[in-house]
Design a protein that fits this description.
159 residues, Cobalt-precorrin-4 Transmethylase, domain 1, 6 helices, 39% helix
């Protein structure tokens, strides 16, 4: 299969039919209802939160408390019928404020196989969507993760 990345229309539909597809979404600028609608529309099974620090000062519904293993985001996602997984320890960007994603790309180049192992395992049996804060995937480390997976035969699309 030829790997492809997409962001619109019929190309996104092709990825949706792929058996090795990963979706990504940024919650920034969205309402909780809007986010859940996107996930439903694309028949997502599992939401994988890839934020290193899964908290938001402005969108309190997007918080997840790693020490407790709970928070408003997880509760909302699970109440809506999706599975929630925090993968920020392995796939979070330790420098999220850095505009240049070069440091995270180097990290993925060095340790990517180990870091994506759980995500790949999940994606083999479920429709998975990576969740992060930035609405624009070009400004978010989930684009680095997606391109890394693309090199391993996965298709990806940003919602």
């Amino acid at each position: 299969m030829t790997a492809r990345r997409t962001t619109r229309g019929s190309s996104r539909d092709r990825v949706a039919r792929s058996s090795r597809a990963i979706f990504t979404v940024g919650y920034g600028g969205r309402t909780p209802e809007g986010l859940l609608e996107l996930l439903r529309d694309h028949k997502i099974d599992t939401v994988c939160d890839v934020r290193f620090r899964p908290r938001s000062r402005w969108m309190l519904w997007a918080n997840y408390y790693t020490l407790r293993g709970d928070g408003p985001l997880r509760q909302m996602i699970e109440r809506a019928g999706f599975e929630y997984r925090w993968l920020g320890r392995a796939l979070g960007n330790p420098r999220p404020k850095e505009q240049n994603l070069a440091a995270f790309k180097r990290l993925m180049d060095q340790e990517g196989e180990e870091r994506v192992a759980e995500l790949v395992r999940l994606a083999r049996s479920r429709r998975v969507c990576l969740l992060c804060a930035a609405r624009d995937p070009r400004r978010c480390h989930r684009s680095v993760i997606s391109r890394f997976l693309e090199g391993r035969g996965f298709d990806y699309a940003d919602l």
